[in-house]
Amino acid sequence: MSAKRLQQQVEALSRSAKHFNKSEVECLIKLFDTLVTTSSDRFGAVGFDRNMFRDTLHRTFGMTDDMVMDRVFRTFDRDNDSCISVEEWVEGLSVFLRGTLEERIKYCFEVYDLNGDGYISREEMFQMLKNSLLKQPSEEDPDEGIKDLVDIALKKMDYDHDGKLSFADFEKAVRDDNLLLEAFGPCLPDIKGSLAFEKKTFKGNRKL
């Protein structure tokens, strides 16, 4: 990439990805280019496909849940073209690593709203919880335990009692109790993972 093109990208992305300064945006663009170049033998790939992105989430942030990683991919992939562009990468990481509570609430809601209809349904909660809970060998039907958890979640979070969570329900519940942000599965990096990634990626760059 030419220096001029890089500068243009840095300028544009430091405006849209507001939690990063220009030198950090530049580091993220360079990391993106490195990852795409080393991971792809496809002709002139312009970004991450699902497998590359999943691999990066796993290696960098220790994510292991395929269903959650797939949802994170879809949330980053704003234009739904099954490829994460450099813009989607930097803007996605801005929320993923440093988002405000409001931004993270919106992000987690999108991850959990599997069919994109604007609600987290009982079935979606069941799928996410079934997927994220460790399978315990026990005599009881594990699905029964998960159904109980869904009932508890609805009791605590479904303020308008319509049997599903709207964004307003989810936002109010999380503002009342921040621990509910990732109620249906871990889809944000932990502090340790975030700091390790930032330290490695932004080494030598102090936040302006």
Model regions low in confidence, pLDDT < 50 over at least 5 residues: none
Count of DSSP E strands? Answer: 2
Structural class of the secondary structure composition?
mainly alpha
Number of helices: 10
Describe the model.
The mean pLDDT is 89. The protein is mainly alpha-helical and 208 residues long. The two termini are 25 Å apart. The longest helix has 18 residues, at 22-39. Helix 1 packs across helix 2 (22-39). It is 62% helix and 3% strand. It is built from 10 helices and 2 strands, in the order ααααααβααβαα. The protein has helices spanning 3-16, 22-39, 50-61, 66-76, 86-98, 101-112, 122-132, 142-157, 167-176, 191-201, and strands at 119-121, 164-166. It has a two-stranded antiparallel sheet with strand order 1-2.
